[in-house]
Specification:
219 residues; mainly alpha; single chain; 52% helix
C-alpha cells in the first residue's frame, strides 16, 4: 500500500503538470448567439404577420389605412375608409392572401418551436441530448424558412384581385400599381433572409462536438 505522499505523487502523475480540471461549459458563444437570433427573428416574424402595413394605397397611408394579411375593412355607404383590425379568415379578400396568411402563420409557428428548441439546447449540458435538440431545431428552422418564403412569394399574386385594383390602379400580379409596399411586408422579407442562417448556426451550437451536426444546408 502506498503512503499518502506516494498516493499524492501518483495522482499528480496522472494529471499533466499545470492543467486544471475542466468545468462544464454553460453555453457556447455560437449557441448563445443562435438562441438570441432565433428569439429576435421570431419577434420580427410576429410583428410582420400582425402588421396592417403590407400594402399602402396612395393618399391613405397618412390616414392610417393599409392592407395587411389579417385586415378587415369596414364598408360604410361611401366605401372602405379604414381598417377594423383582424377579422374572420373569410374576410381576407384574395385567395392568394389567404394562402399567404396560412403559410406565414405556419412559418412563424415553426420559428417559435425552433426558438424553444434552441433555448433548450443552450440550457442542456453537453451530450447526446443537446446534439439531438440542435439537430431537431435545425430541421424545424429550415422548414420555417421555406414555408415563410413561399408565403411571401404567394402574397403579390393578390395584387390582381378586384379589391386591390379598387384602391391601387393598374395593379397586377407582382405589380402594386399606384400603391406602395409597406414596412410589414419588408420586415417579413428581411426576417426570412436572416432566418436562412439559423440552420447553419445550429451546426456549431453544441458546446462540445467533433464535427458539425448533420443539418442539411439550404444552398
Amino acid at each position: 500500500m502506498l503512503s499518502r505522499p506516494g498516493a499524492e505523487r501518483g495522482a499528480g502523475a496522472a494529471r499533466p503538470a499545470g492543467s486544471l480540471p475542466r468545468r462544464p461549459r454553460m453555453c457556447s458563444g455560437v449557441g448563445c448567439f443562435w438562441a438570441l437570433l432565433s428569439a429576435g427573428l421570431l419577434a420580427a416574424c410576429a410583428a410582420a404577420f400582425l402588421s396592417p402595413a403590407w400594402l399602402l394605397p396612395p393618399g391613405r397611408a397618412a390616414a392610417g389605412f393599409a392592407f395587411g394579411l389579417l385586415w378587415r375593412c369596414a364598408e360604410p355607404p361611401r366605401g372602405c375608409h379604414g381598417s377594423a383590425g383582424p377579422g374572420r379568415f373569410a374576410d381576407i379578400p384574395s385567395g392568394s392572401w389567404q394562402a399567404s396568411a396560412v403559410l406565414c402563420a405556419g412559418g412563424c409557428a415553426l420559428l417559435a418551436l425552433g426558438a424553444l428548441l434552441a433555448l433548450l439546447a443552450v440550457l442542456l449540458p453537453a451530450g447526446a441530448c443537446e446534439r439531438r435538440a440542435c439537430i431537431l431545431a435545425g430541421y424545424v428552422q429550415t422548414a420555417a424558412v421555406f414555408i415563410m418564403a413561399s408565403g411571401l412569394l404567394v402574397y403579390p399574386f393578390g395584387f390582381n384581385s378586384a379589391t386591390v385594383k379598387r384602391f391601387c390602379e393598374n395593379s397586377d400580379i407582382y405589380y402594386a400599381g399606384d400603391c406602395q409596399i409597406g414596412w410589414g411586408y419588408m420586415l417579413a422579407i428581411v426576417g426570412v433572409m436572416l432566418s436562412v442562417f439559423l440552420p447553419f448556426f445550429a451546426k456549431y451550437a453544441p458546446k462540445e462536438h467533433i464535427s458539425p451536426t448533420p443539418i442539411p444546408t439550404i444552398l
